[in-house]
Amino acid sequence: MTQPVLLRQSERTLLRAIVVGAGEAGLALARDLHRVSSFGLDPVGFLDDDPAKQGRRYGGRQVLGTLADLEQVLEWKQVDVVVVAIPSMPSHEVKQLGLRAAGQGVTVLHLPPFLSALQRQIAGTDMRALQVGPLIGRSEMHVVSRHARDAIAGKRVLVTGAGGSIGSELCRQVHGFGPAELIMLDHDESNLHRTQLELWGEALLDTENTVVADIRDTERLFQLFRDYRPQIVFHAAALKHLPVLERHPCEGVKSNVRGTENLVEAAVAHDVERFVLISTDKAANPASVLGATKRLAELVLDAHQPTRTVLTAVRFGNVLGSRGSLLHVVRDQLASGSPVTVTHPDVSRFFMTIEEAVGLVLEAVRMSDGSATYVLDMGEPVRIVDLVRNFATLLNIREVDFKYTGLRPGEKLTEELFGAGEEALPTEHPRISMTRPPCTVPGFRAGLRELYDAAAHNRSDEVFRHLRHLVPEYSPAPGLVRAGSPYPDDY
Asked: Which Pfam families did the record assign (predicted)?
């Protein structure tokens, strides 16, 4: 895709969608998508395997081919999203369709069976991307371009944290881009089992591409890099739950900082071409251990320059739809009739979908040519209470009771995308900005060694002191109470 096409994508208010299935469900869905622009999708045609329907028009939209024609139609119509409107389609067929579409840089959404809709499970799950606009005040962005395929195809790719929400989606899209090899690394074998099952329809965990390892184990990582010789590394493994890291800061350092440096050292030593760190918006002017350790991980990348390995970071907002994310918790609370717990009436966050998050990562691989941190334009921060009310409206719930628990230690009222001294610089993608890291503090390497030693001996007070020295903009927010909401902080 050339630059002018990217610009046209950003200027459109609606994403171009193909509806799979020209039956009653598909026709009704296309009609509703056309009528309700807030869904953010513009149906441009259908795919259907019924020979009698080929070339026919329904509501002004033509059946453009069968499922075998998927790739050609996606390219021909410059499609952004495929919506499967065959509720009875087996899940393994939907997954295969998703892999084929991912090879073209296109997202697949699945309309769940009618029973699921009756049970009010449609919102926030399978069709979450259709309804993200009403929730967060903007349409979902189709971030990844078809050129991202060129950066992945034929490469040996390693994904850490492959069993997590972001890691598994990365694996799914990378797999669709035709890598020479996809190496999936996680310390939890049950997570790997789930990811392998999603990708291949079976999960015996007996293949070379599933690797159980801990990123804290330096010798194990060097062995893996010697054996697999990855060319691209996506580093999604991390400890990320804010309240846990406030209570256990040493563990945050061991995983988020030392684990990242272990991987960077292995990548540089084994001539990895590109290394991408998954960071968080909490790294901008951090107020928590999570934010400080992820900011420090970004600085670790810069401290290893110059090197032939391109070291890049991407910052995420809170990711809607990831396991244990806000929507899942809110849905359960609304379904039970319980008050929805929120830390503060004015707390707000940047939100993105899993597809946007992974698209940002893949575009960063394609665009990066040196040490930088990439950030997606996510619009304005959204108040949690507004998002909950919008979500309740989608579930046909008119009244919502809130219980305010107070800000947790390390929690801000609102997040930022860029920290002190950082400038948002344009990139070739109109909705992605980047920033160059500022200079590290004098004695940074020695300070890191002291931090690692304090963490290894579980001396929390020293860890806090070293974090404040190494990340001068880190200003711990005390929070109002220790008890907090049940939401994990996703990115």
From this structure: CoA_binding_3, Polysacc_synt_2
DSSP state for residue 370 in the 8-state scheme: S
In angstroms, the CA 360 to CA 232 distance is 15
163 to 92, 138, 231, 240, 296: CA distances (angstroms): 19, 29, 20, 14, 24
- pLDDT tens digits, one per residue of 416-468: 888 888 888 988 888 889 998 777 888 999 999 999 999 999 999 999 999 99
DSSP class of residue 113 equals P
Instruction: Rounding to the nearest 10 degrees, give the CA dihedral for residues 190, 191, 197, 203.
Output: -40
Catalytic choice (282, 294, 403, 412): 282
What pLDDT, on the 0 to 100 scale, is given for residue 322? 60
Reported confidence tier of residue 254, pLDDT bands at 50, 70, 90: very high
Which whole number is the average pLDDT over 200-221?
Answer: 83
At residue 239, the pLDDT reads: 94
Q: Minimal CA–CA distance to 300: which of 269, 259, 272, 270? A: 259
Classify each residue of 96-121 as buried b or exposed e, where b means 16 or more C-beta atoms within 10 Å of its C-beta.
ebbbbbbbbbbbbbbbeeeeeeeeeb
- Give me the domains of the chain, ranges plus CATH numbers: 3-111 (3.40.50.720), 148-435 (3.40.50.720)
Q: What angle do CA 47, 50, 54 make, to 5 degrees?
A: 60
Residue 40 is predicted with a pLDDT of 79
**26 Cβ neighbours under 8 A, 6+ residues apart:** 19, 20, 46, 48, 85, 86
6 Cβ contact partners less than 8 Å away, ≥ 6 residues apart: 145, 428, 429, 430
pTM of the model: 0.74
On whether the CB atoms of residues 186 and 212 are closer than 8 A, the answer is: yes
- In this prediction, residue 321 carries a pLDDT of 62
- Quick one: pLDDT at residue 173? 85
Q: What is the pLDDT of residue 225?
A: 98
What's the Cα-to-Cα distance from 296 to each of 255, 441, 460, rounded to whole Å? 12, 11, 17
Active site residue 254: no
